[in-house]
Design brief:
- By secondary structure, the chain is an alpha/beta fold.
- Among the domains are: 2-168, Immunoglobulin-like; 332-366; 531-696, Immunoglobulin-like (Sandwich).
- It has a 9-stranded parallel β-sheet. A 6-stranded mixed β-sheet has the order 2-1-12-9-8-5, sandwiched between helices. A 6-stranded antiparallel β-sheet has the order 29-30-31-36-33-34.
- The structure holds ligand MIG.
Length: 697
């Protein structure tokens, strides 16, 4: 059951789109319902104007209470024991004590004897204190009384999550080629840089489907421009790459450069499409291209306008984008730097030398430039009313993605676009995927990547993944191998790094064969992974999820923080520590271990339920297949364009067991012949799922 309580006058975020199963309840009924789960609700908190919280929701935990959800956030799969703040942030350091990342995903399930789900539909700052201030107390703090709160009851984690997923609408589905492997780098400056990447991948025989273009392709980092010196004949270049089976995926930033000679800026200004400041002038901040203005994505007409701007690129054959800087990011504003300059001048005008303390304070001012304080100085128009940004902050990236998605839908004549962004709110999952932002080449961030996937899936962001190998810091070959061996299972599979660190393309390392085989395995798995993804999207289920979802009464499974279930049949147990030859794996039930030595050579062994140590070499991929399941493997390819047979026959529902190499569980040694069937889903040209029955007798 799903209950919705409306308090005050909430903003319609459009996170929830399917309302037929929702029961509207009053505040008193809500208090009652929450109470029946053991929770309490306080409405008498002082208002935000006094810097306090207006609404509080609390829950006294039991010994085994666990929390799942909250989408993109730090720390564990079980969120118990820390504090998480929904306040979208351009966060360059994803370390353990950060409360906020780029997304605001206010859905969580309280797993206890009586389980319930909670969704706070409010686009400003929300605090989830899950045992931070008091070890066994959950407190959700909302700074306003204008909010929708959803309470979801159900029999278990999976069922509660599925109900939630239904009300927020179906997740974005990428095109099949979006499951290919992509190479990216902040720093591919010319068409030749990109040609070199493609040539080296092709000559190393490492599969590749796309190269991402970071802000380097733009003229002076301005959106919707192309540097024509470094990228002459862009249209021909796009075509040339396509002939090699590679798609180019440009980045787009949220803010538009203040350039009086540019039509886009002129148009946005004349039509009043940019966010404003206190005195109704354009709010401007310094970002990559210099002074920039922020399109007011909360307005439909601005979204239509912005979405149309992508046409220059789609006309050249571009079919995918990644949207960045849409928290929105800002480096500084006029008032930031004026205050900072004044502080410098004041100090300089003093007769005595500055003390170290004074200098430190000055340095701190500059470091603090990327601050949230500026959000109180800019404004949107929502339903004709001027509204301060901080009250709708978390909707910005969501609506940029929506603008992009709607534009691309018009421009690509029915083909699915590849699209993902950085900042998001629940609702954005219908339009695009997200990547998890600026991680580092740290082993701990490989583990973080594993742990972030279940929460993201619960909140609808099925198409997600991290920068494989890490964005900041310098990668080592073993880390990149281990990370790649995990990322072949995440829908978004991209190697990306920043400009001033060691180059990170797979072909730069010693064991090219290992990279080739691991990525080739991804391509063998694409039909299966895409099928599992389609099922998850259409059935409102999770493609990747915590063991707790399927083995709820098994304490060891619930506690497992470094293994994931994928679709109906697979369990993943990636290696995420350096200098280890394997790892401990917990099997909640008997499973078939499959150890791929290469993409085509593998060995299997049956393991009983329980704790095991499994050896996993640096060049190997180990996965586990659940009982009564089969795993169909396609023939290896170097790009999805070569998967013609699968695409053509799959669309007609004519794929058969012969088209795949099939691994079945249990082991033949286990006795009488058994019949296994896998329903492989493909998508036809009308974007409808088509089922192919793959049978193994
Ligand atoms: O201020 O476009 O997260 O992936 O390479 C940094 C440059 C801006 C942040 C993104 C990252 C991208 C980088 N961007």
């Amino acid at each position: 059951m799903i209950y919705r309580m409306k308090s005050g006058n909430p903003i319609d975020t459009e996170a929830v789109v399917n309302t037929e199963d929702i029961e509207q309840i009053t505040e008193l009924e809500f208090i009652d319902k929450l109470g029946s789960f053991g929770g309490s609700y306080y409405t008498d908190k002082p208002d935000i104007s006094e810097g306090r919280f207006a609404l509080e929701l609390s829950y006294r935990m039991n010994e085994k209470t666990a929390f799942f959800g909250l989408g993109e956030s730090m720390r564990g799969i079980n969120k118990r024991g820390y504090k998480y703040i929904s306040e979208n942030t351009d966060e360059p350091r994803q370390v353990e004590d950060k409360y906020s990342l780029y997304g605001a995903h206010n859905f969580l399930v309280v797993k206890d004897e009586e389980e319930f789900g909670l969704f706070i539909d409010y686009p400003g700052r929300v605090e989830f204190d899950l045992g931070f201030e008091t070890r066994d107390l959950m407190t959700v703090r909302i700074p306003t009384k204008d909010v929708y709160i959803y309470l979801i009851s159900g029999k278990d984690l999976a069922q509660i999550t599925k109900q939630f997923r239904h009300i927020i609408g179906m997740s974005y589905i990428p095109p099949l080629w979006g499951f290919g492997y992509g190479q990216s780098r902040f720093g591919y400056k010319t068409a030749d840089d990109i040609r070199e990447v493609v040539n080296k991948y092709r000559s190393a025989g490492i599969p590749l489907d796309m190269v991402y273009m970071d802000i380097d392709y733009m003229q002076d980092y301005k959106d919707f421009t192309i540097n024509r010196t470094r990228f002459p004949n862009f249209e021909d270049f796009v075509e040339e790459m396509k002939e090699q089976g590679v798609r180019l995926i440009p980045i787009m930033d949220a803010a538009i450069a203040h350039d009086d000679r540019m039509k886009i800026f002129e148009e946005g200004r004349n039509k009043g499409y940019f966010c404003t400041n206190e005195s109704s002038g354009i709010f401007e901040a310094g970002v990559w291209p210099g002074w920039t203005a922020y399109p007011d994505f909360l307005r439909p007409e601005v979204r239509t306008w912005f979405g149309e701007l992508y046409r220059d690129f789609t006309d050249c054959g571009i079919e995918g984008f990644w949207n960045d800087m849409n928290e929105p990011a800002l480096f500084y504003t006029e008032s930031n730097y004026k205050e900072t300059l004044a502080a410098f001048e004041e100090l300089a005008s003093k007769n005595s030398d500055p003390t170290p303390g004074e200098l430190l304070e000055l340095a701190g001012r500059i470091n603090g430039w990327n601050g949230h304080d500026q959000y109180a100085h800019f404004f949107h128009v929502v339903d004709g009313k001027k509204i301060r940004h901080d009250r709708v902050h978390n909707l910005y990236g969501y609506n940029m993605l929506r603008a992009t998605s709607e534009g691309l839908e018009n421009q690509l004549s029915g083909a699915r676009p590849l699209l993902f962004g950085r900042s998001s709110y629940i609702g954005a999952h219908r339009y695009a995927g997200i990547w998890t932002g600026d991680n580092c080449s740290w082993w701990s961030h490989l583990l973080l990547n594993i742990r972030q996937m279940p929460g993201l899936n619960m909140c609808g962001f099925l198409f997600s993944g991290a920068d494989t190998g890490g964005f900041g810091a310098e990668v080592t070959e073993d880390l990149l191998l281990r990370w790649t061996a995990f990322s072949i299972f995440t829908p978004l599979f991209r190697n990306h790094s920043t400009c001033d660190v060691r180059k990170q393309e797979c072909y730069r390392f010693g064991d090219i064969k290992a990279f080739r085989e691991i990525i080739a395995l991804r391509y063998r798995l694409i039909p299966y992974l895409y099928s599992e993804f389609l099922k998850a999207a259409h059935n409102d289920e999770c493609y990747l999820r915590a063991l707790a979802f399927d083995y709820e009464d098994d304490d060891d499974a619930v506690e497992t923080e470094d293994q994931l279930l994928l679709g109906e049949g697979l369990m993943l147990a990636p290696v995420y520590m350096q200098n280890t030859e394997g790892r401990h794996v917990y099997l909640p039930e008997r499973m078939l271990m499959i150890r791929f030595n290469t993409a085509s050579e593998y060995e299997t062994a049956v393991y009983e339920a329980g704790h095991h140590y499994i050896k996993i070499g640096l060049e190997q991929v180990v996965i586990f297949l659940r009982e009564s399941h089969i795993l169909p493997l396609a023939s290896p390819q170097v790009c999805t364009a070569d998967m013609k047979h699968y695409i053509e026959y799959g669309h007609k529902g004519e794929l058969e067991a012969d088209d795949f190499e099939i691994i079945a569980f249990p082991d033949p040694a286990d006795g009488p012949k058994q019949y296994y069937e896998y329903k492989m889903w493909c998508e036809n040209a009308d974007r409808e799922p088509v089922e192919n029955k793959i049978v193994r007798e």
